Amino acid sequence: MSAPVLTEAEHITWLRVDVGLAMSARREAARLAKRIGLGADRVSAVEIAVTEAATNLQKHAVDGALALRVTRSGAHAAVEFVATDTGPGIPHLPSALADGTSSTGTLGVGLGAIARLADVFDIHTLPGRGTTVMAQFWAGAEARREEPAGIDAGGLTRPIGGEELCGDTWALRSAHAPGTAPADGGAASGAGPVLAMMCDGLGHGPQAARAGEVAREAFRGTRHTRPQQVLQDLHRALKGTRGAAIAVARLDFAAGSVEFSGVGNVSGFLVEDGRRNSLLSVPGIVGHHMPHLRTFTAAAGPGSAFVTHSDGLSDRWSPESFPGLFVRRSTVVSAQILREAGGRRDDIGILVVKATRA
Ligand SMILES: [Mn+2]
After folding, report:
1. 151 forms bridges with which residues in the sheet?
2. What does the alpha-carbon distance between residue 228 and residue 244 come to, in Å, rounded to a whole number?
3. CA distance linking residue 199 with residue 220, whole number of Å
4. CATH 3.30.565.10 domain residues, the chain
5. pLDDT tens for each residue of 36-74
6. Nearest-angstrom CA–CA distance, 205 and 347
7. How many CB atoms within 10 Å of residue 280?
8. What is the band of 90 on the pLDDT scale with cuts at 50, 70, 90?
9. Distance between Cα 310 and ligand 1 center (Å)
10. Residue 266 pairs with which residues in a beta bridge?
11. Which part of the chain is the PPM-type phosphatase domain (predicted)?
């Protein structure tokens, strides 16, 4: 039996702003909603909400994009969209969320409707820099607003221009050894330790994506719960593939500790109180050349966030330049960092994990 996988990167459809955005976003959202078994009324809710978000981007955003995917938490599934733009920002968020009042004619139109329709909604806006809006629609009422084992994890991947498949991927699972995990995956006992992986398959395109898929399969199946041992399993599994840069972290927010081991250009950070602690990787290629592994440990207080990303993002971002961001949902944190630190000449992968606040 494998340790329970809490959540993994899913295929994302990225839609750029053009005249057809609202229509294509609506169509894709409906397709995903039907696929996870949402009822007709919830399919309509997803369609209305994503149309509002897309129309907003079309009218007001500079360099906007809409990401659509199925997101999973254990056995539960949701349709999720993330609308992100570089633009004016929303100067007065509360009135924008109050819908149809003073927000008329600004980027905030329709936000109140999206917030009411969605099971989970979050937003972060930086005046003069940009905004990220996130909305989730869960299948099954009991899954709504439920957190996997006290953890809020959210990541984003985006392939380099011209490619359909992404070589960057991530996964999160319980750090209990197989066979010893509680039947509920740890949900009853609060935030149990978790293992997080960020993988950058070498190059890009189908072969890089294949390396990522092999890494995820091995990550699901490993019996180990410590980063270095997990990396050794990934190394064995990735022989015969292109290889990858991979970081694995063991995050125990309840105990206040993080262990991090990385090979190749994958960044790891612990963010707390506006400060960023770098966790270092060593040079090498998982699947080809394993260096002598090292594990870095850091204290992770209950309000801290673990951030890991591939070299498709610049590592020069700083938490102080994102006021108010790190208390938002992890997917929103990922999207705002991606928006400002992500380049266009490589696959991109970013994952943020933190404990949910009691
Ligand atoms: Mn890369």
Report:
1. 355
2. 15
3. 13
4. 5-143
5. 999 999 999 999 999 999 999 998 888 899 999 999 988
6. 9
7. 12
8. confident
9. 6
10. 310
11. 174-355
Q: pLDDT tens digits for 151-172?
A: 999 999 999 998 999 999 999 9
Question: Is 151-355 in CATH node 3.60.40.10?
Answer: yes
User: For residue range 117-129, what is the model confidence (pLDDT) as tens digits?
Assistant: 999 999 999 999 9
Residues of the chain with CATH 3.60.40.10: 151-355
- Written as one letter, the residue type at 129 is R
CATH of domain 5-143: 3.30.565.10
**How remote is the CA of residue 156 from the centroid of ligand 1, in Å?**
14
184 burial (CB, 10 Å; 0-12 / 13-18 / 19+) is exposed
How many A from CA of 50 to the centre of ligand 1? 30
Tokens of 172: 């999160």
Going from the Cα of 131 to the center of ligand 1, the distance in angstroms, rounded, reads 25
The angle formed by the CA atoms of residues 112, 123 and 41, to the nearest 5 degrees, is 45
| In contact, 141 and 135? CB cutoff 8 Å | no
Q: How far is the CA of 295 from the centre of ligand 1 (A)?
A: 22
User: What is the Å distance from ligand 1's center to 242 Cα?
Assistant: 13
Measured distance CA(286)–CA(193) in Å, rounded: 24
